[in-house]
């Protein structure tokens, strides 16, 4: 069985990222290493299983839902009746 290899553009699409440049930043952040190169385009190729494992191991927003937005912080600071 051959493993599925993904380009940065494929990873961007899979992860819902804006483009391949954003995917490259994500790849560096999670520490993925290219396993091969495309012989035609010379694009780096990444193992799909490793990409999925890295994505799954990333922490979520947590119970609190992450940082509050500036809009919600400002609304909480306003005094009632004004």
Structural class: mainly alpha
CATH architecture of the domain at 5-59: Orthogonal Bundle
Which stretches are low in confidence, meaning pLDDT under 50 for 5 or more residues running?
none
H/E topology pattern: EHHEEHH
- Helix count, DSSP H or I runs of 4 or more residues: 4
* DSSP, total strands: 3
What's the main sheet like?
A: 3 strands, antiparallel
**Terminus-to-terminus distance:** 67 Å
| CATH class label of the domain at 5-59 | Mainly Alpha
> Considering DSSP H and I runs of 4 or more, what fraction of the residues is helical?
40-55%
Question: For the largest beta sheet, what order do the strands appear in spatially?
Answer: 1-3-2
Radius of gyration: 19 Å
User: What's the pLDDT, averaged over the residues?
Assistant: 85
At CATH level 3, the topology of the domain at 5-59 is: Multidrug-efflux Transporter Regulator, Chain: A, Domain 2
Strand content: 5-15%
General form: elongated
Protein name: DUF4224 domain-containing protein
Organism: Kutzneria albida DSM 43870
Region (Disordered): 56-82
């Amino acid at each position: 069985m051959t493993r599925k290899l993904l380009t940065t553009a494929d990873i961007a699409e899979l992860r819902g990222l804006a483009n391949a440049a954003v995917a490259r930043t994500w790849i560096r952040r999670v520490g993925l290493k290219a396993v091969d190169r495309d012989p035609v385009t010379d694009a780096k190729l990444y193992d799909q299983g490793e990409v999925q494992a890295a994505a799954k191991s990333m922490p979520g927003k947590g119970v609190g839902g992450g940082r509050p937005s500036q809009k919600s912080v400002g609304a909480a600071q306003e005094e009632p009746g004004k």
